[in-house]
């Protein structure tokens, strides 16, 4: 791989920004869940491939640390920034073009967001641009053995999130519709396909063995949590920032205009069309934007080449439009300050953010709200658990409404001597009742007290309140249930709920 000193500088800048800004507020609910999944190593999980959970657990090897956890997405953001700069150089951009690409990679809201939280998307953020880079070089006559590298990185992405399949399909469609298809006429392409298939086979067999739980989850959630308005393509402009989208939209036009890069432009259009058709969440195509940003930096360099003033103005415009959006995707402000800032922008620009009113208080966007309150919730459950008589405490189980709550109870529960948490949500259902009968059960949220599970007595022991939480995580009732009519092991099949919709369980 060619070395780029400018690219390395921007990669280190991206790393520094994320190391400074990532580790604030608290663990996101999914991050807690990933940690617990990683502490139960497996070839797959109900709702994800195994790579992200394993990285999450590995990051906590020396103790619970938000900073250590978020070093991982910071590194992914740095790799993605470097790959974008390499792509810019491949598109024959000069130092200014590389600098525009590096800067936009750091400050574009979606790129910044994907480099904040530990999630399956962070691995795609750095693998998709590498796949695009190496494929572009292969179409230009690079050693065809690089198809093995493409296959290996594709498998790596698939071990983090299955949506890479859509990207690969779109990329192949772009190649087949253009002269780039000549690069496919080599046994090394077939070898790359075989290598990728062999590497993802263990995870596929896990899904088969467990009855394709991921497909069941997608079927349960299809269309439930997707923003329908505005249309999906317009959402892409909004999540990347309307002004900064000028960069990647210019890149898209530039790619489509040039014969040698047209396949990458077609790949983007195909990807958006397919994801729109399948009701994908608007951030799912996010990892494709590094190569569009890289391409867009080249015409910007050409347009501003006449006078230095225009280049200074271009950089100033990027920064001016990035600064207001940064607190929404990187937790750089104290939480109270951010809530006030969010409300102020809402009033000034008549915007309605994805927030809810909660007992008269304004809560932050869900992106941040789900980073708050988890240690306090566990402390409240710990008090209820400690209040039980010793005989009951020895057999008490704790049942959580969803995987996020259950994971918080497991991650922080050791402080209070809590037993392993139970839940019917996603991989927690696969872990089963863990030997608990349910005869004494602390029910967090109270959702298990329905027609599926009956008890002799149910007592409201506490109510947990968090003014910054989303409504479904505030005013959480904590019940003590005694005298279960049928053991949990018998009832367990009825408690399964494969879903991402935590507020709807």
Structural class: alpha/beta
State the total count of DSSP E strands: 7
Mean pLDDT: 92
Assembly classification: single chain
Strand arrangement in the largest pleated sheet: 4-3-5-7-6
For the sheet with most strands, the description reads:
5 strands, mixed
SS element count, helices: 23
Strand content: 5-15%
State Rg: 24 Å
- Which ranges are low-confidence, i.e. pLDDT below 50, for 5 or more consecutive residues? none
Order of helices and strands: HHHHHHHHHHHHHHHHHEEHHHEHEHEEEH
Helical residue percent?
55-70%
Number of domains: 3
Give the overall shape, derived from the CA principal axes.
Answer: globular
- How widely separated are the two ends? 48 Å
What does this structure look like?
By secondary structure, the protein is α/β, with parallel strands linked by helices. The chain folds into three domains: 5-329, no CATH class; 335-363; 374-504, no CATH class. Helix content is 57%, strand content 7%. It is built from 23 helices and seven strands. It has helices at residues 5-21, 29-38, 51-59, 66-90, 95-107, 109-114, 120-139, 146-158, 164-176, 187-209, 213-221, 232-239, 245-257, 262-277, 289-303, 308-329, 335-349, 366-369, 374-386, 390-393, 403-412, 427-430, 488-491, and strands spanning 357-358, 361-362, 397-400, 421-422, 440-444, 455-464, 476-484. The strands form two sheets. A five-stranded mixed sheet has the order 4-3-5-7-6, covered by helices on one side. A two-stranded antiparallel ribbon has the order 1-2. The longest helix is centred in the first third of the chain and has 25 residues, at 66-90. The chain is globular. The two termini are 48 Å apart. The mean pLDDT is 92.
């Amino acid at each position: 791989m060619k070395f780029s000193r400018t690219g390395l500088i921007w990669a280190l800048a991206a790393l520094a920004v994320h190391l400074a800004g990532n580790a604030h507020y608290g663990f996101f609910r999914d991050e807690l869940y990933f940690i617990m999944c990683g502490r139960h190593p497996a070839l797959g999980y109900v709702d994800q491939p195994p790579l992200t959970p394993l990285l999450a657990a590995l990051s906590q090897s020396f103790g619970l640390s938000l900073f250590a956890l978020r070093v991982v997405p910071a590194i992914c953001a740095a790799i993605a920034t470097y790959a974008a700069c390499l792509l810019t150089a491949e598109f024959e951009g000069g130092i200014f073009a590389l600098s525009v690409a590096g800067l936009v990679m750091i400050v574009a809201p979606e790129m910044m967001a994907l480099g904040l939280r530990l999630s399956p998307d962070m691995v795609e953020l750095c693998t998709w641009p590498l796949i695009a880079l190496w494929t572009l070089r292969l179409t230009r006559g690079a050693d065809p053995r690089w198809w093995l590298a493409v296959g290996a990185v594709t498998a790596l992405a698939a071990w983090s999130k299955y949506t890479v399949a859509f990207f690969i399909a779109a990329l192949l469609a772009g190649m087949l519709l253009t002269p780039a298809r000549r690069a496919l006429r080599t046994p090394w392409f077939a070898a790359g396909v075989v290598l990728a298939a062999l590497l993802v086979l263990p995870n596929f067999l896990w899904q088969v063995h467990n009855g394709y739980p991921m497909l069941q989850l997608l079927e349960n959630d299809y269309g439930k949590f997707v923003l329908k308005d505005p249309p999906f393509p317009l959402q892409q402009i909004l999540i990347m920032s309307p002004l900064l989208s000028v960069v990647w939209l210019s890149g898209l036009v530039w790619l489509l205009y040039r014969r040698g890069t047209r396949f990458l432009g077609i790949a983007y259009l195909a990807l958006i069309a397919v994801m729109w058709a399948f009701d994908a969440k608007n951030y799912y195509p996010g990892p494709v934007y590094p190569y569009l940003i890289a391409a867009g930096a080249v015409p910007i360099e050409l347009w501003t080449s006449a006078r230095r003033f225009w280049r200074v103005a271009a950089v100033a415009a990027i920064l001016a439009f990035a600064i207001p959006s940064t607190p929404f995707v990187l937790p750089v402000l104290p939480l109270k300050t951010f809530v006030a800032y969010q409300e102020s922008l809402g009033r000034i620009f008549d915007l309605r953010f994805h927030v809810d009113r909660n007992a008269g208080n304004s809560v932050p966007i869900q992106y941040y709200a789900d980073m708050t309150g988890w240690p306090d919730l566990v402390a409240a459950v710990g008090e209820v658990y400690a209040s039980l008589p010793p005989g009951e405490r020895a057999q008490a189980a704790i049942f959580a409404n969803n995987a996020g709550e259950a994971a918080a109870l497991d991650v922080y529960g050791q402080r209070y001597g809590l037993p392993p948490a139970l839940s019917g949500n996603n991989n927690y259902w696969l872990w089963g009742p863990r030997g608990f009968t349910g005869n004494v059960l602390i029910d967090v949220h109270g959702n298990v007290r329905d027609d599926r599970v009956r008890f002799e007595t149910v007592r409201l022991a506490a109510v947990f309140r968090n003014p910054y939480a989303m409504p479904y995580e505030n005013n959480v009732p904590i019940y003590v249930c005694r005298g279960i009519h049928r053991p949990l092991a018998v009832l367990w099949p009825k408690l399964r709920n494969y879903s991402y919709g935590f507020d709807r369980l």
